[in-house]
Amino acid sequence: MSRRFLSKKPRLEDYWRAIVLFGQNVASYKFALAKSLLELRPEAGQLVTLDELAKPFSRNIAAHLKKIDKQATSKSSKFLDACRDFNSGKVSEDQLIDQTVKLGFNNVIDAFHIVGREPIEKSFFVDERKTQGGIKITDEFSMLAMTNHIGSLPAEAEARWRLVETAWSMDISTNLLSIQYDLPSEDLLVVSRENQRIPVTSSRDALNGYQKSRCFYCFRLISLSDDNLKPQVDHFFPHNLKKTGFDSLDGVWNLVLACRSCNGSGGKWANVPHISYLARLFTRNEFWIASHHPLRETILLQTGKTESLRGKFLQECHDYAITTVTHQWQTDEVEEPTF
After folding, report:
1. Spans of all domains in the chain
2. Taking a C-beta distance cutoff of 8 angstroms, is the pair 138, 44 a contact?
3. What is the DSSP letter of 108?
4. Using CA atoms in the order 37, 42, 43, 49, what is the torsion angle rounded to 10 degrees?
5. What is the percentage of the chain residues whose pLDDT exceeds 90?
6. CB-based contact 296:288 (threshold 8 Å)
7. Which residues of 75-92 are buried (b: 16+ CB within 10 A; e: fewer)?
8. What percent of the chain has pLDDT over 70?
9. Residue 49 forms beta bridges with which residues?
10. Whole-prediction pTM value?
11. DSSP tag of 42
């Protein structure tokens, strides 16, 4: 499915998102490395030493350990223990940096560009630890940093990290994990065993990468960091259908990001999207399913265990919505379709 995500003229931001959104994780180190590179913003050809990389890398891990102590699926980790010791004041920052250089990058640098079982076609750095003690930044990363997407990528990595660590911390079967949308706050929530609603991350941050920073309907550029381009969370099938007994509309399967033109009073508003958008919603949801735990299980629970069942579910939803609301809405695409 990561290949399907990249299938239409993949751009550098698509490759980056494949790494962050579709990688299978046994620890949160890939998220920390992604956020560290975005923070440092090194230039093409620059050697980033492990000492330099260790500072933001360990800081990101230590900060997340304060929120959720489980940052890996393994039972023990000397590196995570060092981060915990730093948080408790047992070791200094210099000592943490030293331990990070020794222990923190053992696997993540080798695995960073692996999606599925193979490396992606573009690399954002080259491993030169054995010869120069660090990683050398490629032209691809510098070009990525110049795109309009760069401001959204840190929030996307953070959202993915929060979802993964929350799932690990709850230590429950993935088929029992449920992610819900909270309309007032526009956050995604996880429901615990005790039926507690735990805020996890902004729905915008979690949704954006799977739409490649494009409005779901017109493909206009949207951005999490630019207020002028900030998207709105839209219920694909209108939220007011809940009044008729359509109870699952707040499920993540029905949430998309739309620009203000498409989602405003002069746009879709409370109408039903044209049937032509249904395949796009199906594709976007399949991206989520391919992103593995935990969004994968949530979508499966909400829409069906097989592709045929999920397609049937969406068709039935559209049939119900159009017979209830009757009005369909469609708009022109202002940019080339990206999914």
Report:
1. 2-145, 169-329
2. yes
3. H
4. -100
5. 71
6. yes
7. eebebbebbbbbbeeebe
8. 96
9. 134
10. 0.91
11. P
